[in-house]
């Protein structure tokens, strides 16, 4: 096996060049994960399934269905990998991490049961209620009369959430009562909750089911258009660190939110192993949880991994094997990173595919710029658009203002017809 202990610091050391990792997924987050894994000196080879054209430049890609646990476990066995990292929520909720662990391979990612913290809004609310974690008051609604009563009780702005996974499109926040009712009717089982007012922060923590190791806080821009207008999306940009946060913020959230959630999942007999993502609102009444996700956020992961200096494979392996307590504090570059998403025309409702993408190489050649692929495909016409969020362009520099300029210089190099890009990612914070 690949883990040795050094007596000096007892941290789980992976032998240089010994580790093979398989990354499941094919988005910008997985491209960033695969790239960061290849930068880890312990890593010998990175594989990905299904990957994408960007991931194929740093990993060996395999055409395997990422939600098919049996197929993923079979691939992991065939390749003889030491670690599988499951990126997206759909395979996690489908139990892909369980299937991998069943064949005896370490897996970074929660079991299907633990992933319900993202897969069911009602389940997540129940965990928060039991563990005393601050969140919006909410009601689970199964019928039209439940919906009417809940909308009446909480008032406008209305927050209506589909109970199940919805690829970032299950939540409607609106002052339009008819639109709130229509969304509830279209979903079936919904959670209707109190509107939380205040800036949002994403705090991610690595956990092995007991030890909780938070990353730096990041901020995500969820709305499609400048000035936080337009519909909710999977995320149109992100940046880290957040210079405006008070000192001790992460410790406080760790104490009040992340540790209680991890402890409650363990108490229920479904320990959470992997990345616990807390989406937080900084309200006048204190920090409250907007949502939990069971995986790295996209696009927050892209700037965070630009800044993380601690080798990634060692961290994920320690979390996957119950040894996170042996890892020292995380090391971060003292720099700033900004990620800007380039989305397809029609995103988020009906992305139009097929436009030819140019300029990715020019952008990547700029100092401090990295371009991560998500909805791209390589064909006879070259690189073309194949999904809603197409590329994430990150810019990393010593100051937030320079990181923004760097990211947007990268964006300016890239073009495809009808691209949608927010121009104000991290703008307020940089001023
Ligand atoms: P979720 O999938 O629960 O994170 O919701 C997606 C987005 O909807 C969040 O990032 C918020 O911007 C918004 N949202 C969700 N719940 C609330 C809430 N209770 N109050 C205000 N905005 C919310
Ligand atoms: N950036 C939001 C998410 O990954 O859900």
Summed over residues and divided by their number, the pLDDT gives a mean of 94
Q: What number of domains?
A: 4
Counting DSSP H or I runs of 4 or more residues, the number of helices is 14
Instruction: Give the overall silhouette.
Output: globular
Distinct compounds present: adenosine monophosphate, glycine
The percentage of residues in β strands lies in: 25-35%
Structural class by helix and strand composition: alpha+beta
Q: What is the CATH architecture assignment of the largest domain?
A: 2-Layer Sandwich
CATH domain class name of the largest domain: Alpha Beta
CATH topology of the largest domain: D-amino Acid Aminotransferase, Chain A, domain 1
Short note summarizing the structure:
By secondary structure, this protein is α+β, with helices and mostly antiparallel strands. It contains 14 helices and 24 strands.
